[in-house]
């Protein structure tokens, strides 16, 4: 196992310590409890927005804590859901009296634990609404999930919804916008290589030298099918068409497009995929008017990429363009 | 060769096309000539700042073109110097009448070609000053270089010097600041894995399952030594101590620290390395007061990291903190 780590059991704790040191201007990190909280939380009368999930997907979610996006994130062990106590602590920490939105990726463990945390928070009279993301068109059910998995749209949703929350909008409105973004977004991913969970010490799955996995999940869950290696043009087509079909995107529509690296893929390749994506969508008269290319929701050192499209409307654009200042996304301030 | 590409010979052209599409608000890309120019160039009476080098190190340098950093970048083929004609075209495109600074990493091909471009520009009455970066403490001479290689400090220098150029400072002053940053900066890198140049189709070098290369260059040039895998703590110590010694950093001094991923290393590991770096420097009473953690000067999909330290003074801090708006670095606007 070739990793820049010390002991596997210390990976999350030490990475959080590093993150706390690098981004001390933006976040407070409770390393023992594993929660990352915006420095100025709780903000009075502002809806608190939190998310969480297994570690190993950095910069998600901790990298999105800050002005205009998340108020807190709770990372679990690598590829393992955080526990309800963490989520409850994060909920308390960001409750400014206007309630708290839980953004939950649709993985069985995450959903169950966030539900429990919401109940515990309710018992303390903190109003919580949960929105579950389920944008992965690759498979209906999978190893860790009933229904579609929540993947790339989560990042884009956190940005858009975080901007609305920053305006002081009420919880019901913030939650409704989250549901709308999820409804208008779809994703699909693929892997050229597997990844190795530090505690396991060996690759999650095996892929031949001339093979790739289409429709992979972000924990290395099996996808739609294993296939022979193909060109960037073919791979991009394979990922894009199911998204366009499922979203029923039509000529003349505008999208926010994310080409996301899985952690081990260099930026030069992601730009090539974006070039193909633009060509394909142009052929369908669909315009990419906002975009994001880079490593945003990763699977450790896995090589591969995912594509996420969100159908845009004026409201989404307005909140996408609004200022954000987090460790991983920053513009407008 | 597992890559998200089409034909190896189209990699740079297609990646540039993708980059142009993603960042059309910031840059103009001449895909045939392979130059990336700031949209508002040339800026009258502002020193033009350009850099260039082989592709495969993204986001360097094209990702640093924009307000407060570079005015243009010329990417060569993968791991291959751009040609003088490209550099001359970039120099012309950014010449606003106040002259042009060439920032050149110390690799034999880059130095030779930038020298030729400067002569051609001089023949057109464009004043050019070149500053060569040579911050890599790992080896004195290497496969592609006489003297020390120019690596991570180049990124930090481009940010600091670009901010000064933005104020309208004259060429001599901009060049002098570039020399000062280079003098105060040192780097060292290591690799856990090799990388594969698309046109070659096989790894640049071989590393055993339990081996790493210490002091690697950004093209996979051999480093100081091959060693058995070690912990993040040991690796960070191995990279940091030669930098601190060479810079003669003393207790009480402040540094800008970059922990850079080589392209295939996940962010969670880079934060662990940063945590170790902070611990080591704290032990020497050296403070990290500015920092950057992520993939900034890469070697395709190589796994590994490099550390760069720049001794800070008030001037460096002022220009580091100044607004920047490029594809890869953005703050303050």
TrEMBL record, chains A, B:
Molecular-function GO term, any one: phosphoenolpyruvate-glycerone phosphotransferase activity
Known pathway: Polyol metabolism; glycerol degradation
A Pfam family assignment: Dak1
Keyword Iron-sulfur in annotation: no
Residue span, DhaK domain: 7-331
Protein EC: 2.7.1.121
InterPro entries hit by this protein: DhaK_1 (IPR012736), DhaK_dom (IPR004006), Dihydroxyacetone_Kinase (IPR050861)
Swiss-Prot/TrEMBL catalytic activity: dihydroxyacetone + phosphoenolpyruvate = dihydroxyacetone phosphate + pyruvate
NCBIfam families xrefs: dhaK1
Oligomeric and partner information: Homodimer. The dihydroxyacetone kinase complex is composed of a homodimer of DhaM, a homodimer of DhaK and the subunit DhaL.
The protein's name: phosphoenolpyruvate--glycerone phosphotransferase
């Amino acid at each position: 196992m070739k990793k820049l780590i010390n002991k596997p059991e210390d990976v999350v704790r030490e990475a959080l310590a590093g993150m706390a040191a690098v981004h001390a201007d933006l976040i407070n990190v409770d390393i023992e409890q594993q929660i990352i909280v915006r420095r100025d939380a709780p903000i009075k009368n502002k809806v608190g927005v939190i998310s969480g999930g297994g570690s190993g997907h950095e910069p998600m979610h901790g990298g999105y804590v800050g002005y205009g996006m998340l108020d807190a994130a709770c990372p679990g062990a690598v590829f393992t859901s955080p526990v309800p106590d963490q989520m409850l602590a994060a909920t308390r920490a960001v409750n400014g009296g206007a309630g708290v939105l839980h953004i939950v990726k649709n993985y069985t463990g995450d959903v169950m634990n966030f539900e429990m945390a919401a109940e515990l928070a309710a018992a303390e009279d903190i109003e919580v609404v949960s929105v579950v993301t389920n944008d992965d068109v690759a498979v209906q059910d999978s190893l860790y999930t009933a229904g579609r998995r929540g993947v790339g749209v989560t990042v884009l949703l956190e940005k858009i919804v975080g901007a609305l929350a920053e305006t002081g909008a009420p919880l019901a409105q913030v939650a409704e916008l989250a549901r709308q973004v999820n409804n208008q977004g779809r994703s699909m991913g693929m892997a050229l290589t597997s990844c190795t969970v530090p505690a396991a010490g060996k690759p999650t799955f095996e892929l031949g030298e001339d093979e790739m996995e289409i429709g992979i999940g972000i924990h290395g869950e099996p996808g739609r099918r294993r296939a022979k290696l193909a060109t960037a043009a073919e791979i991009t087509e394979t990922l894009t068409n199911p998204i366009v079909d499922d979203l029923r995107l039509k000529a003349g529509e505008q999208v926010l497009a994310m080409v996301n690296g899985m952690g081990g893929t260099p930026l030069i390749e992601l730009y090539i995929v974006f070039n193909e994506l633009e060509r394909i969508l142009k052929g369908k008269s669909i315009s990419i008017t906002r975009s994001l290319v880079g490593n945003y929701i990763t699977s450790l050192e896995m090589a591969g990429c995912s594509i996420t499209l969100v159908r845009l409307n004026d409201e989404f654009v307005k909140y996408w363009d609004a200022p954000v200042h987090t460790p991983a996304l920053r513009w407008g301030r």
